[in-house]
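Onboarding guide, step 5: your first structure request.
Type a short instruction followed by the sequence, for example:

Predict the 3D structure of this protein.
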Amino acid sequence: MAERTEQNSRPGQQIRGKRGTRAAAVVILAGAAVILFDAIGIAAEGGIGPQQPGFFPMIVGIGLVVFGLAFLATTTLWPDRELLERAGEEHDGVQWATVWLSIAGLVAYSFLLTPLGYIIATCLFILALTWVAGSRKWVQNVAVALIFPVVVYFGFTELLGVRLPAGLLGALL
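The system replies with C-alpha cells like these:
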C-alpha cells in the first residue's frame, strides 16, 4: 500500500473524518450513559456485588465511558491524522440512505415487537431490511423472514424458557 503524505491528503476527508470520529465517540458515550442508567436501576433493586445482576452492566458501562472518553480525546486533543484521513475516505463510500433507513426500521421494530409479537415483527423487519439492503431475491428473502423468526421463537421459548412476545399469534402459540 502506498504511503500517504500530508501533501496528498484531502482536507475535506480530514474534516469528515473529524466529524465522524467525534460523532462515534459521542454515540459511545451516550450508549454508556444508557447502560449505566439501567445498571444503576438494577443495582438499586439487587445490589452491586459481583453476584448481583447489576454488576456486569455496571462494569460494561464504566468500560464504555473510559473507552468513549479516550476515543474522544484522541479525536480532539491528540488527533491521529491517519485515522482521520481513513475515516474520511470511508465516509465517502457509505450509503447513508441505507444506514438511516435501517435505523428507522430498527426503531419501528422496537415499537411493533410487543403488539405484533416476535414472529410477525421480525418477519416484517427482515423483509424491510433485505429490501433496504438491495436484495431482490424475493423467494429467498421471504423464506428466511418466515423460517428464522419461527426457529428463534421456539428455540428461546421451548429450549431456553425465555418468553418472547407472542402478540397477534398468541392464541396459536
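Each response can be followed by summary notes, for example: Confidence is low (pLDDT under 50) at residues 1-8.
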